[in-house]
Specification:
Layout: E1 2-8, E2 13-19, E3 25-29, E4 32-36, E5 41-43, H1 48-56, E6 60-65, E7 74-75, H2 77-83, E8 88-92, H3 95-106, E9 121-123, E10 128-131, E11 134-140, E12 149-153, E13 156-158, H4 180-191, E14 199-201, E15 216-218, H5 219-225, H6 235-246, H7 255-262
Parallel strand pairs: 3-6, 6-8, 8-9, 13-14
Antiparallel strand pairs: 1-2, 2-3, 4-5, 4-7, 10-11, 11-12, 12-13, 14-15
């Protein structure tokens, strides 16, 4: 099994391609579609090398796996699905809860179904998927969102936003449906139960202190050294810390377009009669700006 990872510096996101070089069976995890809010431009610079790799290696792409509905970048799943028609877009079955929450936040009506049917496959907790010669075990790791899954393929674990590099900790838990206590238990009861030598591939690297890019660690290193959830930090301590820290964080720069696209399986808003597409942006009106 081989893993090739692609970094998007605009959103500090990682896309991982996992494949068997003998059989050429493959999956892609968390593909990124680029979006520039100034001018509202959507483009595929981050996906181009992923597509090139799949073609150059003549891979059979079985699944495009989402660890969760990302709030900081658009998913490139539909573009990949278009390029490789046999691939299925899959996400945890808990996405229906996320859809229900955000349909209300954005005032979305029938334009976004709330039953998860936009995705080709909804993955149950602890389900195992077959991707040719690859076996993908779906480990539920909610807390960052209610629908987060980590994927175990061989000795490699793909944690999305549940667990980052040891010097950066964990994902935030203040999005609707997020919960710090749940995340702590996901990490300690599910991820830290894996063997120490299990390789961990994270979904983001924010390069704290300006250090070089790093996106691979191990369960053993995470258990001993993760600055948020290492052994010795109890649950309540983590909940208190995470709550304080999350209160200081700004909303992700691409929150509104990302969530609208990603709960719809990576589909951009449907065009109107003039072939124009629009995102909805809620207005958080400060009382000082209100008119009588």
């Amino acid at each position: 099994m081989r893993i090739e990872s692609f970094f998007d510096p605009r959103t500090s996101s990682l896309t991982h391609v996992v494949y068997d070089p003998a059989t050429r069976d493959a999956v892609v995890i968390d593909p990124v579609l680029d979006y520039e809010p100034v001018g509202s431009k959507v483009f595929a610079e981050s996906l181009t090398p992923v597509i090139a790799l799949v073609r150059a290696r003549e891979l059979r792409l079985h699944y495009i796996l989402e660890t969760h509905a990302h709030a900081d970048h658009l998913s490139g799943s539909q573009l990949l699905r278009h390029e490789f028609p046999g691939a299925l877009v899959a996400i945890g079955a808990g996405i229906v809860d996320v859809q229900r929450i955000f349909k209300g936040v954005f005032g979305l009506g029938d334009e976004v179904r709330g039953d998860g049917g936009q995705f080709d496959r909804l993955i149950a907790a602890d389900e195992q998927l077959r991707a040719g010669s690859l076996t993908v075990a779906a480990i539920p790791t909610p807390g960052h969102t209610p629908a987060c899954l980590s994927y175990l393929i061989g000795d490699a674990l793909f944690t999305g936003d549940a667990l980052f590099m040891p010097d950066y900790g964990t994902g935030r838990c203040d999005f609707p449906g997020g919960d710090a206590r749940t995340l702590y238990r996901s990490v300690h009861e599910r991820l830290f139960a894996l063997p120490d030598e299990t390789r961990v591939f994270v979904g983001h690297d924010y390069q704290p202190g300006g250090r070089p890019l790093a996106y691979q660690t191990t369960i053993g290193d995470s258990r001993r050294h993760n600055i948020h959830v290492a052994e010795g930090r109890d649950e309540q301590e983590f909940v208190d810390f995470r709550s304080r820290r999350d209160a200081t964080l700004d909303a992700p720069r691409l929150l509104y377009p990302s969530v609208q696209v990603n709960i719809d399986a990576g589909r951009l808003p449907a065009p109107d009669a003039a072939a124009r597409s629009f995102f909805k942006v809620p207005v958080n009106l400060d009382p000082s700006a209100r008119r009588g």
